[in-house]
Structure formats: C-alpha cells, structure tokens
Specification:
4 domains, 17 helices, TIM Barrel, eight-stranded parallel beta barrel, binds 3-methyl-2-oxobutanoic acid, binds zinc ion, 16 strands, about 500 residues
C-alpha cells in the first residue's frame, strides 16, 4: 500500500458555503494560488452551475493556477456537468466531481426518486463527465446514512462507468471514528474495484469528529482526504486541512503516511483565508490559532526555554510561524519593499506593488515598526478592494465627543462619479455606516462586529470584521487601517460591495 495521502482542498467550494462568506473572483484566485503554493493535490474551485460569479471564478482559477487538479462540482445532471466542464476545461489537470444522494432519507424526501433512478443517474452522469474529462470523481452524498448494500451497488455502477476517484462523504457529520473506519474497510473488501482508484473521504464536523473520522478512514485504506483551510465549510465545517496534515506529519512514525503539503506555508494560507473570508480564527485553534504555540504558565515557559520539546510537539517554524520581524520603516523605498515581498513569496504586478507601496508609506507615517503581519494585512486588504469593487472609499470625516451627536461625512466613488453624504448615529462607527448606507441606498442589519489588532502596540493596525444581514442574506466584510473607524467603514463597504456584486 502506498504511503501517500492526497489532499483535496475544498475551501473554495464547501468552505465558501459557510454562512456569510462570499468571495469575489480575485479573492478566489488569490486563495487558489496560495493553495497551489501550499502543495495541495486538488483544488475544488467551486460549483459552476450555481451562479455566473462562481462559474467565472472557477474558470479563472482553471486558466491561471498550475500544479493541482482543478475541480468543478456538478450534481448528477447534464446541465451541471456541461457547465462544470465549460468552467474547468482550460485547466492543466481538470476534474469533474459529480454527486448524488444515496441515503433513503435523501432519495425519498429530497430527490423524490427511486433507487433505480439514482443508479441510472449515477451511470449517466459519470459517462457524460468522462466524455469531457479523463478524471472524474463521484460522491454518494450522505454515504454514512446510506444502506450498505445499496451504497456498494452505486459504487460498482460508478466504477463501471469510469469514475477515477470515489469519495465517501459523511455529509451530516454523524459518523464515529470506529464506524467510519470500518465502513471504508468493508467497502474496499466488498467492492474490489475500489482498490484501483483513489478512495477519498469528505467529513463534516457537526460532532467535532471530522478530522478523527478522516484519520480513521486513512488508517483503513483511504488515500485522499478532502479538507478546508481553518476547517471552514457548511454548518460546523469540514475536516481542517492544517490539523489533518500536521497529524500525519507529527505522527509519521506511527501512521506511516505522507502528504505533498509544504507545511511551512500553512500559517500564511490560514491567515489569507481568514482575512479574505472574514472568518476569524479561534485563539486556541489547533495549529493555526494565535495561542497554538503560546506558553503562559511559569512551568511550561521555563520548560520550553530549557528544551523546546518539553511542551512543544511541533516547532512553530514547521508551520511557517516565524517571529513577525520588523522589516521596513519610513525610509524604505519601492525596491526594498518589492524585494521583501518577493522573499515572502508574493509576486505582485506593477499596479499591485504601487498600491501596496502607497499603503505601506501611509502606515509608516503612523507606525514605527512595520512587520510581515502588517504587510500581509495590507495585501489582503488590497486584494479585497480590487477590480470587482463597486464603491470605493475616498474620504471620511467624523465628529464625535461626549457632548456631541456623532456625525459622519463619507465620500464614495463609483465608476469615477463622486457621492457624498452626512449622517448621524449612536456612535462614530454607526454614523459612518449610516452615511455609507445613505449613499448606496441599501438597508442593512448589523449582526456581528469585531475589532482586533494585527500586531501588538498602541499604533497597531485595527482589523475589523462585520457581518450584515442584507436583504435576508448574511454577508461578511473586513477592513484594515490604523484608524478603527476607517477600518470599520472599509469592512462595512466591503460587505455591501460583495452583496451588490452578487
Ligand atoms: O458534504 C457532502 O456530501 C458534499 C458532497 C458534494 C461531496 O459536500
Ligand atoms: Zn460537504
């Protein structure tokens, strides 16, 4: 048996199904390029039939990103498969991923079909996909709640029709590790054809077991795991890529399985995904949480200082967590910035470099020491506000104080035209958001607001995350600035722009 476990990343598809996430094309491309740098074997870039935006994003990823397979999701129906192929056909290694539910509850209540019809649809979908693409993945949705004999029958049909990867999803996160491991083991015994294809698993985290279940599957013969960065995904999310990979890496001697992931890229990928999706990472999250390598008790700190391995099972460098260095200052020029960004593996075009340089200089006027973390935040903020931005923030002025009604004036630009409005609010942030709302003419309800600091110190950049309800849909926005009112305005506008561009 091979010692390789392939990592199929679905951050841009299942991850994007997390409530409130809505990535635009340039954000998806930025994440896909970083996933390729991370070394994932496949990137599920989206579900092309679902919207024009998703189709365009998948197409762009397929045309630009080289290395991993680029995957488009499709239900087992002709229109989905045709659209998925249209989106991915220019990829270096395209793959169609088609799925149909196989549990009684899904077949009867959701699909309203018979089992025979499901078998026929499976066969037809895979054959149609195979006419386009040599690589086809098939998933029997809700596999863990499906009748075992029927599941085997569906898989036999899928293999016979030419599927090259069979993915077993625990769609509702119901399985227990022993059960799921046994399911994979038994499927491989009863359906011998599975030994000739990639056997993949896709676990959801409703009971907090997504990674444990994926691991049990790997120990029982699965050789691909579907994951998302930071564990994003529908409801409680999917198996977290960083956890799965670092389990296999840290416990290699016991498990004997390797991945192609460049673990040093994990921290950067995690931060980029968090910045662009607006989903902040829980402080004590394994591997990528801010406290994952922090030791606070005296005994632990003393131990680590004497010998790191007393309390650390992974070195922070292994996941790319280096001291955020003080790198540049007020006097640094374009060339120094470019060189430093290249050393951080960013290759920006002239326009992006210029905009980053302007932001860098503005920051250097306010903050003495500029670190890698500051630069990462600036770049993510700039990516957020590129071409697909509908309104851009040109100017804000806020008057507020203990005896004053907070009042804000904002100037926004749309297609070169300037719009200005003044509004009042309960506080300065509320006043700014009201003024933006007046210009844009969109009514919103604030569901969540959070501000945190990118680095330590009083001059740190503020990182604001906002979740809005816009016309019944949840949308997340994020913005960064040394001025938290400006960061809030950017976050608010970012959410509105996303909603308008959908
Ligand atoms: O959770 C699930 O079943 C899915 C399938 C499309 C693989 O996301
Ligand atoms: Zn899923």
């Amino acid at each position: 048996m091979s010692d390789k476990v392939y990592i199929f990343d679905t951050t841009l598809r299942d991850g994007e199904q997390s409530p409130g996430i809505s990535l635009n094309i340039s954000e998806k491309l930025e994440i896909a390029e970083q996933l390729a740098r991370l070394g994932v074997d496949a990137i599920e870039a989206g579900f092309p039939i679902t919207s024009h935006g998703d189709f365009e994003a998948v197409k762009m990823v397929a045309e630009r990103v080289r290395g991993p397979k680029i995957v488009g999701l499709a239900r087992a129906v002709d229109a989905d498969i045709d659209r998925a192929w249209e989106a991915i056909k220019n990829a270096e290694r395209p793959m169609i991923h088609t799925f149909i539910a196989t549990s009684d509850i899904h077949i009867e209540r959701k699909l309203r079909k018979t089992k025979d019809e499901v078998l026929k649809m499976t066969e037809a979908a895979i054959k149609r996909a195979k006419n386009y693409s040599s690589e086809v993945e098939f998933s029997p949705e809700d596999a863990t709640r499906s009748n075992f004999d029927f599941l085997c029958k569906v898989l036999e049909v899928a293999l016979e029709a030419g599927a090259t990867t069979i993915n077993i999803p625990d769609t509702v996160g119901y399985a227990l590790p022993d059960e799921f491991g046994k399911l994979i083991h038994e499927l491989m015994l009863v359906v011998p054809g599975l030994n000739d294809v990639l056997v993949s698993v896709h676990c959801h985290n409703d009971l907090g077991l997504a990674v444990a279940n994926s691991l049990a599957a790997v120990e029982n013969g699965a050789n691909q795991v579907e994951c998302t960065m930071n564990g994003l995904g529908e409801r409680a999310g999917n198996a977290a890529l960083e956890e799965m990979v670092m389990i296999l890496d840290t416990r290699y001697r016991t498990l004997g399985k390797k991945t192609n992931i460049k673990t040093e890229e994990i921290t950067r990928t995690s931060r980029l995904v968090s910045m662009l999706t607006g989903y902040q990472i829980q402080l004590n999250k394994a591997i990528v949480g801010a406290n994952a390598f922090a030791h606070s008790s005296g005994i632990h700190t003393d131990g680590v200082l004497k010998e790191r391995i007393t309390y650390e099972i992974i070195s922070p460098q292994k996941v790319g967590l280096t001291e955020s260095k003080i790198i540049l200052g007020k006097t640094s020029g374009r060339h120094a910035l470019k060189q430093h960004l290249e050393a951080m593996s960013y290759s920006l075009n002239d326009d992006e470099l210029e905009r980053t340089f302007v932001r860098f200089k503005e920051l250097a006027d306010k903050k003495v020491e500029i670190t890698d973390d500051d630069l990462e935040a600036i770049i993510a903020d700039e990516v957020r506000s590129t071409k697909t931005e509908i309104y851009s923030l040109d100017y804000i002025h806020v008057a507020s104080g203990t005896d004053e009604v907070p009042t804000a004036t904002v100037r926004l630009i749309k297609n070169g035209e300037i719009f200005e409005k003044t509004a009042q609010g309960d506080g300065p942030v509320d006043a700014v958001c009201n003024a933006i709302g007046e210009v844009v003419g969109v009514s919103t309800k604030l569901l969540f607001y959070n501000v945190s600091a990118i680095t330590g110190g009083l001059d740190a950049q503020g990182d604001v995350t906002i979740q809005l309800d816009i016309g019944g849909k949840k949308v997340i926005g994020r913005g960064v600035s040394t001025d938290i009112i400006e960061a809030s305005a950017k976050a608010y506008l970012n959410a509105i722009n996303k909603s308008l561009s959908k």
